[in-house]
Design goal:
The protein has strands at about 5-10, 10-15, 20-25, 25-30, 35, 45, 55-60, 65-70, 80-85, 85-90. It is mainly beta.
Length: about 90
């Protein structure tokens, strides 16, 4: 998995349009040379590194409320399942 491209695309919808924020081990994910975060909530690891291992959570929110989901984490070989993910509509 290390060195590969990995993309997460949560399907979100709502009115008004919600925002998506990603967190890694409790800290907000910031774009850098290896990570791209799109306005639609897509999180892409351009080149996965060992430092990217861990739990990723996302929060989808708008004025109607918020919901959370998570990717359990990367353990050297594969990303584990998504919890609370899928289609999110608020």
């Amino acid at each position: 998995m290390e060195g590969q491209r990995v993309t997460f695309r949560p399907k979100v919808g709502g009115s008004p349009a919600p925002t998506v924020a990603w967190y890694h081990e409790g800290s907000m994910v910031a774009p850098d040379y290896a990570i791209d975060v799109q306005e639609d909530g897509t999180l892409t690891f351009v080149c996965v590194e060992l430092k990217h291992a861990g739990t990723y959570r996302f929060t989808v929110s708008n004025s109607a409320g918020s919901v959370q989901g998570q990717v359990r984490g990367w353990e050297g070989q594969a990303w584990k399942e998504v919890e609370g993910g899928g289609e999110v509509c608020i």
